[in-house]
Amino acid sequence: MKKFYLTTAIDYANGSPHLGHAYEKILADVIARTQRLLGRETKFVTGLDEHGQKVQQGAEAEGIEPQLRCDRIAEEFKDVLGKLEISHDDYIRTTEQRHKEVVGELLQNLFDAGDIYQDEYEGFYSTRAEQFLQEKDKVNGEWPEIFGEVTRITEKNYFFKLSNYQDWLIEYIQNEEGFILPEYRKSQVLEFLKDPLNDLCISRPIERLSWGIPLPFDPDYVTYVWFDALVNYVTAAGYGTEEFNQYWPADVHVIGKDILAPPHAVYWPIMLKASNLPLPRQILAHGWWTTSGAKMSKSTGETVSPLALADQYGADAFRFFVMREMTVGQDAEFSLERFSSRYKGELGNDLGNLVSRLLHMCHQYFGGTAPDQELNEEVEQNLQARWKETAAKTLEFYETYHFHQALEETIGFVRAINKYADERAPWKLAKSDDPNDGKALATSLATMLEGLRLANELLAPVMPGTHAKICQCLSQEPVKVWSDRLEWSNRLAKVELGQKIILFPRD
Ligand code: MSP
Question: Which residues pair with 158 in a beta bridge?
Answer without folding.
Answer: 118
